[in-house]
Amino acid sequence: MPGRDSGEFPQKTEEVTVRSQADDIPPDCSGIPTPALEEGPFYKPGSPERRNIAEEGSPGEKLTVEGYVFNRNCKPVREAWIDFWQADGTGVYDNTGFNLRGHQYTDEYGRYHLETVRPVEYGPRTAHIHVKVRANDGSPIMTTQLFLPGEKRNIEDWIFDNSLVMSISKTEKGEIATFNFLLNIE
Ligand code: FE
Asked: How far is the centre of ligand 1, averaged over its atoms, from the C-alpha of 32 (Å)?
């Protein structure tokens, strides 16, 4: 991590180097539980486990989404289950197969990484990505939706929640969106 060994706090060096990243409280944890939103009509259980949910030929602009899953104490949650599903770049869901559907587990640092395409608005809905998150087999599933910044239909959509808008940066590899989930669990 940049700055970790910069020597700004030499008296702390030993302590910092023996701690793993997963034990640190990341500076970008809000401490506020991620709000749940409705599941909608297009969820299908049994999605494949994969980080790239856009199958060959999926219409839409490439989008990467990544971030952490935290518990209510801002501790990263390892091996949290995250299930994504979304419309493609023309606003259409695959309801016969599993294109743009997939689940994954957070890594040892509590991070997830999703490769997909930018969803597009459909019917009454602004662009969004549906998601279910569960810390472990014994914890409740939190169902919600993520939104894209700057979409003109955000304010018209009654389901839209400003606290569920991802941050997006444009890079050489395309757009990278970030969003950290905070589950209301210990
Ligand atoms: Fe939807």
From this structure: 24
pLDDT by residue for the chain (186 residues), tens only, comes to: 444 444 444 444 444 444 444 455 566 888 999 999 999 999 999 999 999 999 999 999 999 999 999 999 999 999 999 999 999 999 999 999 999 999 999 999 999 999 999 999 999 999 999 999 999 999 999 999 999 999 999 999 999 999 999 999 999 888 999 999 999 998
Q: 148 alpha carbon to ligand 1 midpoint, in Å?
A: 13
**25: CA distance to ligand 1 center in Å?**
32
CATH number of 34-182: 2.60.130.10
Sign of CA dihedral 86, 88, 89, 91: negative
